[in-house]
Amino acid sequence: MNTKLVGASALAIALAVAGAALYPRAASQAATHAADAATPATKVALVPVVLGTQERYFAGVGELEAARQVQVAAETGGRITQIRFESGQQVAAGAVLVQLNDAQEQAMLLRQRAQLKNAESSHARTVQMVKEKAATQEQLDSALAARDAALGDVRQTEALIAQKTIRAPFAGQLGIRKVHAGQYLNAADTVASLIDTKSLLVNFALDEQSSAKLAPGQAVQVLVDAYPGDVFTAKINAIDPLIARSRMVQVQAALTNPRGALKAGMYANVRVAREAGHQLTVPETAVTYSAYGDTVFVAQQEGKQPLTVKRVGVKLGERAGGRVAIIDGLREGQRVVASGQLKLADGMAVQAVANTLDEAKRAAPKAGS
User: Fold this and answer.
1) Angle, helices 137-163/103-131, rounded to nearest 10 degrees
2) Is 0.70 surpassed by the pTM of this model?
């Protein structure tokens, strides 16, 4: 009887000790499960990796230049007597801009025209006298030379008077006026800039590898910071046959500018379309860029386990239309996180929600509408 009591007591003591040892672990596991259940999954927008045709471009940077632009300057010196334009004015070809004092030249021209008239009369009389055998051929030659010399003097003075009148060499828009009435101009002093704003040139450079796929007449897309929603179309009109030491080819494209919206000297981003390619693409917002490499978060789910994400390194290709090509690292049909990835880490549980970025893009009005 005593032996049975001792054995039962020992068993009870052993069970109590085991329970005491196991209770903290069970409590810890229960707390962990409770904490996991209490932590909500991170909400992210998921998009599929798409295999399709992606627009591709040769991209470069350049500068806008007026097809015709000049600094209008004086050909000869003189005092300004009249200014016939205002800053920023549109002028026609040949319009008078500035008149210099030409009083001395006008007086000289009056005298020379009188001398020319006298020389012409003398020549005509000598011709008649030669016919009548009353003058020699030598006298006729002298009269002809005197007439031609007088005519040369007249034309020289007329040319000098023309130089005193500064005209617009072509139609366009004038810049800011740099002269004032009464001011003395020396030869080559600038009056104002003149730009043909209706025709522009785009000068840009592309990598030498693109030179074999460029040709005159090829379309070029021009984007400028001043009009972020607009794309202007130009056409290549010249390709430099010499590749610079920078291993770049210089290209020039012609751009019409009927509204005058674009200005010469503007910085421009340039895209030249190339053949489209079949490749995997994802939204640019899905890529996390860092010094250690570009990565995306891929959504994965095994059985009835919660949806989680895994960070995957990728090799990127060209960008176009808000999407970027994936050269390596992903497969078609995989889902990647397009927004909300800044708060993610490997293995975190996530909950898929609508892609608000795509919805906002679809709802936004198109440029020019």
Assistant:
1) 160
2) no
